[in-house]
Automatic annotation (TrEMBL):
Keyword set, alphabetical order: Flavoprotein, FMN, Oxidoreductase
EC class name: oxidoreductase
InterPro entries: Flavoprotein-like_sf, FMN_Rdtase-like_dom, NAD(P)H-dep_FMN_reductase, NADPH-dep_FMN_reduc_SsuE
Domain NADPH-dependent FMN reductase-like span(s) in chain numbering: 3-141
Organism this protein belongs to: Sporolactobacillus shoreae
Domain of life: Bacteria
Protein name per the record: NADPH-dependent FMN reductase
UniProt EC number: 1.5.1.38
GO MF annotation list: FMN reductase (NADPH) activity
GO process annotations (BP): alkanesulfonate catabolic process
Length: 187
């Protein structure tokens, strides 16, 4: 069974970003994928503030990521960038934690003017950490319902999301078949 870790960079419980991530996780589970959602709120402020690379909670998150076949990393837009708390978490994870792993970046924001934060803020950090970065998804706050199911009613946004999730699944299968092929050649 494929495993996906979802990293939420939202410091606010019950945020729109987390609502969308839960929806994306549910869609992946419908395809037989095991999903683990990790929030930045699970990491103590002391660990992040003091950049404690050796903290047990950092090792726990790194272990989940090391066992994953794919990852979704999401953040609301704060000052045309990712949240500082997500950046602090990424800073204390091993630099190559996403090595060869398909990574789907996702951001939520208040205006269409902030969509470039995905390309200029989040994707470069994930690429530096050696991820196989997908195009990504930007969702405007007005397209997200905190109480609706599904939380996104905009058909175009849902279509883009479905396309990116399908690409994530496809890249995970491709990576898996490549690894199996390598094992056959060696064996």
């Amino acid at each position: 069974m494929n495993k996906v870790v979802i990293l939420s960079g939202s410091p606010a419980p019950g945020s729109r970003t987390e609502k969308v991530l839960q929806f994306m996780g549910d869609k992946l589970q419908e395809h037989g994928v095991s999903v683990k959602i990790i929030s930045v709120r699970e990491v103590s402020p002391e660990t992040l503030f003091h950049a404690d690379f050796q903290a047990r909670e950092i090792h726990r998150i790194a272990d989940f990521l090391a066992g994953a076949d794919g990852c979704i990393v999401a953040s609301p837009v704060y000052n045309v960038s990712l949240t500082g708390v997500l950046k602090a978490l990424l800073d204390v994870l091993p630099r190559d934690i996403f090595s060869g792993m398909p990574v789907l970046p996702m951001m939520t924001g208040g205006t269409e003017k902030h969509f470039m934060a995905l390309d200029y803020a989040l994707k470069p950090v994930l690429a530096f950490m050696k991820g196989d970065i997908l195009r990504g998804i930007y969702v405007m706050d007005k397209q997200i319902s905190r109480t609706g199911n599904p939380p996104i009613k905009d058909e175009e946004t849902l279509r883009r999301m479905d396309g990116q999730l399908a690409e994530l699944l496809g890249r995970m299968k491709l990576k898996e078949s490549t690894l199996c092929g390598d094992a056959e050649v060696k064996g």
